[in-house]
Structure formats: structure tokens, C-alpha cells
Amino acid sequence: VVDAAEARPEGVVHHQPLIDNLAAQLGRALVRRIGRSSVSSAQFVRPLALSAFPPPRLFDYKTITANLKIDKDTIDAVEAAFGALAKGHVDVPMPMHIGIEETSVAGPGDCHIKGGYVSGTPTFTVKLACVSFYNNKNLNLPPGSGIFIVVNAVTGAPLGIFSENRFMTDLRTGAAGAVAMKHCTTATQDVVGFIGCGAIARNMARAAAAVRPIKGVAYAIDGAEQFAKDMEAELGMPFTVAPSAEALCRQSDVIFTQTPGGSTVLEKSWLNPKGVTIIASGSDQPTKQEIPIDVLKASKYIADLVKQTSKVGELRSALKAGAMKLEDVHAELGEVVNGTKSGREGNEIIVVDLTGTGAQDAAIGQVAWDKLSKL
Length: 375
What we know:
Low-confidence stretches: 1-15, 36-42
């Protein structure tokens, strides 16, 4: 029961007589209906609220890219989120996928909606990521875009809308790569290959370099030379270009794969017999597969989140072929972070399957809000 004369939002005083009149009429109608004529309409009906929360702050792409990067804050936040996820302290729903088929008026493209809340943190995040809009090139636009919405976990009110155009998604993917390299490789594994040399590969290179000094090797159908040149200049570490994916694999201790994922990008016979860690981030829907089934079957397989990788990650193909069962999954990455499951123990093949989780989005959303809200 709320008094109708309680304080109203500023800026709506001209509408208040109408609101009061409508509220009174509704109240009298309700009182007649339930037969409680002794109850006044003012006691029974709360007036309409035209404005309850301040609008969220809008952060544009330029502001976001100028203030966020792969650094200790982003890596630590994502690492902690994986640890919390493995303990059951993160609410992460399954991603929503909207497929935009190509017609005369739309597409082709894909929209992914993810989100999550890490228990004990003051915000949660919902993210919309649009990818594979390849006809954007005709408009001189990138094929992907997206926004993060960071929400107050106390009031449920949106705090900030980050027009990040996949920058924050790529950032949190890179941070996950750093977590995988930290916990699933050894200090002597310093030759790091990159199959696919786009935006995610750049963040994976930054992530690997944040873990330890590396010798980078690049291979891609297009862009490897520029990637190697740029990363060597930025990181101050040597990068070379391999003539083929096979040549890259034979010399690499760690392999990051980040391709569109339509077909496999390596073969088991190419892999370093001394042991290799493959960190795969290209598959995030049922049509994608980067890693051959025989490699998955032979590996110590680690998922970012099994309920996702079994549906849209590399694990899906091995399960479908009957080559693996869910019981063959060695661990989720958070379990390795927490020390309850092992990382590298010898010369085994390790595959870390990164499909991207709402826990990472929540973590990077919190970092972004903490930093940018102070501007």
C-alpha cells in the first residue's frame, strides 16, 4: 500500500493531474469490483512511474579502445571468473543464436546473445555480438559488431552500454587464451603458432606474451605477413611466417587456432611429438570445426564450459562421431585454474576448447565499468 501523494519524478508535473485522475478512476473501479468500498483509491493504487532510474551511460568505440587492453586486470578478472564458474558460482545461461539467412534484404550473418553473473560482484552483463555479416564489405564496414550492457546487480538498472563492436569480446577471448596458456603449458614451451591472423589472433599474441616471452610463428591464407610484422613491433618479440600450417605445427609448442572454423586446420601427424597445447577459439556454432576428431580423441581435452563445447565447440564433432563421450572430458578450464584438475603433466596433446562464456563477458564488463565509469 503506497500513498498516492508520494514524491514523483521531476519533469512530469504537467501530466500529474491526468495521472491522478486516471489512478483514482482505476482505484474506484477496482474497489467496486472487489467490494471493499471502505478502501480509498489513493491507498489502493500506486501512480504510474514515468522515470525510475537514470539512463545508462553510453561509451563509444573510441573511448573503449583507448582505455581497455589485454593486461593484468583483464587476465586476472577472466581467470577468477573461470575459477568461480567451476565452483558453480556463476549463472551462465546457454547462448542464444539468431541465424540471418542471406536474402535480397538481409544477411548473411549470425547474432549471438550471451550473459552471466559472477556471484559476489556488483554488476552482471548481457552481450549481443553480431558476426559473419560478410556483405558489409560492400558498405566498407567490418563483418562484426556488438554491444555490452552492464547492469547494476543491486537494483537491476542498466549502468552502461558499451558500443564495442566486438572489441571487448575479442579482449575477453584473448584473456581466456592467456589463462589457458598459463595453466596448460610449461615455462619451456615458448614457440607459439597462430593459425589465422585476424583480430582475435592479435589478442591471443598479446595474451601469450603477457604469460611469458615467446617466439611467434604465423600462418594464414591472408594477412600473416602483416600480422607478424605488427606483433613483433608491438611486443618486441620475434615473429616469423610459416609457409604452411604443417610447417607451423611441426615447430610449435603451443598453437592458437582462430579461423572461421568451416574446416579443420591441422593434422595429428603434424604435431610436435614433445607435446603440444592447442588453444582453439574458432568454433562457436554447430557448423564450425577446426580440430580433427582423431586429435580430439588423442588429447587431454579441456573445455571452457562443457555444456557449450558439446553443442557448439570442437567437442560436438567428436561426440557426434562416437569418438568421445562426455566422460572423456578431462576438465573444464576453471577446474585447472582452481587446482582440482591437472594441466600439462608430460608430452601429451592438450586441446583447450574456447567457445566463449558468459562468465568472461561478466568479468570484462565489470573491468570495463570500473575503468570507464571513472572518466
